[in-house]
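Researcher: I'd like a structural prediction for the single chain below. Treat it as a standalone chain; there are no partners to consider.
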Amino acid sequence: MTWDTLKTYLEPLSEGATWTLALFFASALLAVAVGLLVCFARMSGHAWLRTSAKTYIEIVRGTPLLVQLFFIYYGLPELGIVMPGFPAGVLGLTINFGAYLAELFRGGIQSVDNGQFEASRALGLTRIQRLRVIVMPQALRTIFPALGNYALVLVKDTSLVAVISVYELMRAGQMLAGATFRSLLVYSMVGAIYFLMCSVLSYVFRRIEKRLTVPGYWDGASEHNPITKI
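Model: Treating it as a single chain, here is the predicted structure.
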């Protein structure tokens, strides 16, 4: 195997990796937004909101992502809803990971000490201010390691959208292996690229987590304490 041949193989795989990253970032941003909305609905004082959020979470977590992708791409057209592969893939990944993030966010918020809520009320903060300034920064520190794990899982799960003909890294590898009959080499390269992307993402999350876990970060005398900034 020559370097020129490897370069020839890397071209379509690099293009596929670019689309994989696009899938990841689009799905991750939307999943965070969906997760927060469902989390607040799950903790709402309105029973119908709590029930709706809980039903959504249970259905999504109780069915495979692959089935959800098939339902969106192949099932919805029977109802007159037709989407191209890429938006369908983003929607499926968003719906799936949004449900898991909703529970993650809820656990993080509920882990914040009640004394913080009482202190924020004593300062006369509105509910939005309490969430933005007091609760969410502390919840983020608690959930950040798990959030990083979910991000790595999302990168790898983008490979499932290949089954609905979305051109990304896995699909590029399938097409290249079919054209060259060098499956061992091609899928080894695909695996190496996934490993590289996950390694970089893991490093970024470790660096951010290290900053969030600075000793004394939430101490009363710390400049980082949200209450001292009010």
